[in-house]
Amino acid sequence: VQLQASGGGLVQAGGSLRLSCAASGSIVAIKAMAWYRQAPGKQRELVASITNSGSTTYADSVKGRFTISRDNGKSTVNLEINSLKPEDTAVYYCNVLVISLLGRNNYWGQGTQVTVSS
Predict the structure, then answer these.
(1) For 41-63, what is the mean pLDDT?
(2) For residue 84, what is the DSSP state?
(3) Which is it for strands 27-38 and 90-100: parallel, antiparallel or unpaired?
(4) Contacts of 102 (CB under 8 A, 6+ apart)
(5) pLDDT per position as a tens digit, 55-99
(6) CA 49 to CA 36: how far, in whole Å?
(7) Contacts 24+ apart (CB under 8 A), 20-24
(8) pLDDT of residue 60
(9) C-beta separation of 75 from 25 below 8 A
């Protein structure tokens, strides 16, 4: 199973970005999908998650600004980021819980850099 993330970039504070992550490979089913981020010198933190039934959770710091969604037909998870703040600067990673021919495993994308200038 491979995850390909895209959509990061450099934006000014107040701007918006859309991150996408596509899963491919010998996938039987995708369970939870999530986005994490890791800022320089900080631990990786959960930003948002979505179950296969569409239930979502968000970190308090992004509620009202970030929206996670998934397209089960395309095995993708998206993250709409609005009202960006400099403190949102980080590498964003997608994470997917997959049922595959190898069993039940978590997979990570390669990370996409989001940089917010003030």
Answers:
(1) 97
(2) -
(3) antiparallel
(4) 1, 26
(5) 999 999 999 999 999 998 889 999 999 999 999 999 999 999 999
(6) 9
(7) 20/76, 20/77, 20/78, 20/79, 21/76, 21/77, 21/78, 21/94, 21/96, 21/109, 22/74, 22/75, 22/76, 23/75, 23/76, 23/96, 23/98, 23/107, 24/75
(8) 97
(9) no
pLDDT above 90 covers a percentage of the chain that reads: 92
DSSP-derived 3-state class of residue 86: helix
Q: How many residues does the chain have?
A: 118
Distance, CA of 7 to CA of 86 (rounded, Å): 17
Q: Are 2 and 23 in contact (CB under 8 A)?
A: yes
Report whether pLDDT(17) > 90: yes
